[in-house]
Amino acid sequence: MTELRFQWKKQRVPYDIFYELTPRCTFDCKMCYVHLTREQMGERKELSTEEWLRIVDRSVKEGMLYCVLTGGECMLHEGFWQIYERILSYGVVLAVNTNAYALTDEDIARFAANPPGGIRITLYGASEEAYERLTGRRAFGRVVENIKKLKAAGLIPKLAATLTPWNMSDFPAMMVLARELGLRLGYTFHLTAANKDTGRQFEDYRGTPEEIARWELAGWKAVGRVPFQNEPITELPARMPDDPNSVRLTCEAGRGSYTVHWDGRFSPCLNIPTELRLQDMSYEEAWEAAGKMVERLPIPVECQSCRLRPVCANCALTRQDQNDPQHCDPYRCAVTVARWNAGLITLHPKHVNDAPTEEDDPEEMVHQG
Ligand code: SF4
Ligand code: SF4
To answer: Looking at ligand 1, which residue's alpha carbon is closest to its atom 1?
Structure first.
């Protein structure tokens, strides 16, 4: 599979596609990079169901094999079920991202009758208090109840946790809860900088490197995971400076993957700001421009020679300070160093001297939404 993905990427077959159906949501998370209220959306309109169905048909024609429906809360889009069914009718492996708060029994029955490849549920805490602090709703009980209903209907959701200063201290209990539910929990402390129109500032919702490492370690210990025995470091160890793999993105963005945003913007990846719009150009032009966009994106100079890059959870693009794109954000390096020193990451022997290559599997993405 890795070899196939490598070939598709090399030939620029867009096989792994994200549709961000809406920025609206049933929650109002303090760290959300995308959520907008109707008022914040202003004059901008969501793509209609008909427009989405045409996009689906085109994506399949061009090579879509995997698709993620995301948001906001993607199930709030009026055409959600039509879009869902059209994608599945093509045999595409479909994943649905949801916070599971507003799932009804009817929704669950519909999922069970025509199951997706995966349902990813973001867990925002292990208590009503943490949910309220972060999402604005005491939704914990209802979310867990819906997870159990999905399981009872024969669906195996995958849990994902986004950890922020408002819910980090719940992380050990979240790890235990996932184990009790018999479900896998992916998690991330790596937060995406919010879109400008949300009014949120990255600096306002990130934890300190020390508290991140402390709570992640506590989470590991809560389920008996043993940290790695790393030699502590105080600065980043350098690697071979002229390795050709170190100067470009190794992920699928713009080569095997793209995102269509709720208002028709088209980008190589959810995290790459874009002005390309499907309303203004053809699909071919958008895909061509997305590829060029990725080729031009610089990898921060520090990352090019950093030996911890294969285990650094930061995407090359979110490392960049918008005002100084040649350099990575020292905060993100400090998180990686703190996680290394706590034994939460370590280098695979194949990465000790080498840069990540095109064949390496991209890191699994945990949706912040
Ligand atoms: S962001 Fe990560 S890869 Fe880049 S220099 Fe810092 S620790 Fe290394
Ligand atoms: S993080 Fe997810 S659940 Fe929270 S407001 Fe954003 S889209 Fe909604």
So the answer is: 333
Sign of the CA dihedral 307, 250, 98, 223?
Answer: negative
Q: What is the CA(88)–ligand 1 centre distance, in A?
A: 39
Whole-number Å distance, alpha carbon 335 to ligand 1 midpoint, is 9
Judged by DSSP in three states, 14 sits in coil
Question: Is-contact 328 300, C-beta < 8 A?
Answer: yes
Tens-binned pLDDT, residue by residue, of the chain (369 aa):
677 888 888 888 999 999 999 999 999 999 999 999 999 999 999 999 999 999 999 999 999 999 999 999 999 999 999 999 999 999 999 999 999 999 999 999 999 999 999 999 999 999 999 999 999 999 999 999 999 999 999 999 999 999 999 999 999 999 999 999 999 999 988 888 888 899 999 889 999 999 999 999 999 999 999 999 999 998 877 665 555 556 677 788 999 999 999 999 999 998 888 999 999 999 999 999 999 988 877 788 888 888 888 888 777 666 666 667 678 888 889 999 999 999 999 987 655 444 444 333 333 334 444
Ligand 1 site-directed mutation target among 308, 326, 346, most atoms within 8 Å of CB: 308
Assess contact for 268 and 258: CB atoms under 8 A. yes
Q: Are 97 and 74 in contact (CB under 8 A)?
A: yes
**Ligand lying nearest the CA atom of residue 125:** 2
Q: Does the domain at residues 2-238+252-298 carry the CATH identifier 3.20.20.70?
A: yes
CB 5 within 8 A of CB 56: no
Question: Dihedrals φ, ψ of 162, to 5°?
Answer: -110, 120
Look at ligand 2, atom 2, and give the residue with the nearest C-alpha: 369
Instruction: Report the nearest atom of ligand 1 relative to the CA of 319.
Output: 1
Q: Report the residue among 21, 22, 99, 159 best suited for mutation to probe ligand 2: largest number of ligand atoms under 8 A from its CB.
A: 99
Question: Would you say the CB of residue 312 lies under 6 angstroms from ligand 1?
Answer: yes
Ligand 1 touching residue 236 (CB < 6 A):
yes
Q: Which ligand is nearest to the CA of 330?
A: 1
